[in-house]
From TrEMBL, chains A, B:
Catalytic activity: thiamine phosphate + ATP = thiamine diphosphate + ADP
Protein name: Thiamine-monophosphate kinase
Keywords: ATP-binding, Kinase, Magnesium, Metal-binding, Nucleotide-binding, Thiamine biosynthesis, Transferase
Residues binding Mg(2+) 5: 225
Highest taxon listed in the record's lineage: Bacteria
Chain positions recorded as Mg(2+) 4 binding sites: 39, 53, 84
GO BP terms in the entry: thiamine biosynthetic process; thiamine diphosphate biosynthetic process
Residue ranges of domain PurM-like C-terminal in the record: 163-305
Gene3D superfamilies per record: PurM-like C-terminal domain, PurM-like, N-terminal domain
Transmembrane feature ranges: none
Underlying gene: thiL
Amino acid sequence: MTQAPDTRTLADVDEQELLDTVLPRFAASDDVLIGPGDDTALLRVRSGASLATTDTMVLGRDWLDEWSDGADVGHKLVVQNVADIAAMGGRCTGLLVTLVADEGTRLQWVADFTTGVAAAARDAGTVVVGGDLSSAPAGTRMVSITAFGELDHVEPVLRSGARPGDVLAVHGTLGRAAAGLLLLQRGTVETNTNLVQAQRRPSTAYEQGPAAARAGATAMLDISDGLLRDGGRIARASGVRLDIDPAALAGDIQALTAAVGAADAETCVLTGGEEHSLLATFPSGTLPSGWRVIGVVTAGSGITVGGQEHVRVGWDHFGSAKTD
Amino acid sequence: MTQAPDTRTLADVDEQELLDTVLPRFAASDDVLIGPGDDTALLRVRSGASLATTDTMVLGRDWLDEWSDGADVGHKLVVQNVADIAAMGGRCTGLLVTLVADEGTRLQWVADFTTGVAAAARDAGTVVVGGDLSSAPAGTRMVSITAFGELDHVEPVLRSGARPGDVLAVHGTLGRAAAGLLLLQRGTVETNTNLVQAQRRPSTAYEQGPAAARAGATAMLDISDGLLRDGGRIARASGVRLDIDPAALAGDIQALTAAVGAADAETCVLTGGEEHSLLATFPSGTLPSGWRVIGVVTAGSGITVGGQEHVRVGWDHFGSAKTD
């Protein structure tokens, strides 16, 4: 006998039942002095300062239920927030989680979302310390996280410290999440489930953020809106030019060509968002293990590929397509 | 010559123009080591621990544009978050602000909202340290704040510390925000603009949170869902009964009777939410200045009025009416 699926929606449960669905899935931590249930959380801060960032996902804009389940959404939301902590050189110490959902939302979706958040938090070495549950008009569902972090004996790595002579380096993949999105849009998911998984559940080597900071990274961020756009942010904040070496990306493009074709593979690698790999600049000769050089920092402004301005196809292209 | 009103919507501006509308309205602070613009904020934490709380408002559920302008929404959102910090005995040290809005949202609304947030933050002695701007499907608008705080040489005041023999006390008004909402619903706003203002722009004497903590408050929260419901939360968390003295509320009810009638006045005082006055329990004889006793803590469970269980008319009554 198999258990019947839970078909209840948020309209069928009261606030306490909803909390009973959510709270038992979250772990505890010695650094959480007061967790969920009171007016606020209280989080130990050992280093004298707290990193804080927030990021939101909206149904119909940042995900579609047809393509991502609740656990996928919870996973991605954690990654995109904790990646921001890592990109400062920090270690995540806690998460506040907000869910705004209309009462037609299935309770099972909330349970799956919570499970995804809890699992991704565990992967990131952190815990949920509190949050907010709120109802919404029909058709609205939105999830948001605020992530806290600390710097362990390193200075924060800003976007503004890149200097001519530095190298531009990446840790992790390029373009895979965008290629997975293309497969979902084309309805050819079966051609490469790994790429679709990269879209649904991106990953960041969080520990590489502090490692890069210790190695002397001069600027860093995670790739959320595409290599060209995010690299352009470092260039603008630092008052320098970034020049990407096309040869350094040949392997990334090649790896996607069978799945999406050569032209789209290049577009994904240069402009694909939601990858959450770390992008940083380092003084020449100081690259930490696992990072690879993809370009150089020079005097000037903007971002170029092989010395040429690239016809920018930004992440908005895919972003708007997702909701059309 | 008068200036033409700004009729642009979010569809007419790019992300940078939107940031240029928002960021100049926010003040700086010595305790904000890194403010808006990088991957995360970095906030000094002097006491070794950070309070953190988050609260969200959704168009059509928590406000209507016909009744509250952008500045009102920004103001109320700050108050309901900072009141949570105060209700732990804390002082607010920074805010992260999230705006999720469809592209039909007027840029002027965003400017007004930002102005309201900035002004209310200044009133609370705090600043905006960062946030998130996100687009949304048509008809969706949602704002959220995460507030940070510190405890200055006091222990956090939880909901769970009330003990038999303590007194129940309130600082500030009761039922005024709910009465203002009733006037808006009835379309009789002109009868009492002060009450409508209490609905649009509630206020909390934030400094009374730390003052209550120093005076030995045993439990505390702010009244966001009504005296009976929020008092019930203290009773449940502390394992005690709260008994409210009806005579202590006579003045609060009398003050609303002319505007909404005697029966609704009582309902507003006992069950009206969004008031954000502070409610706390104190050992007998330790009441700080400005607080007034409205009941006692006894052995038992639940909340009573004059020893009787009250027919609970919860905040949901008004809350759902708002969106009908």
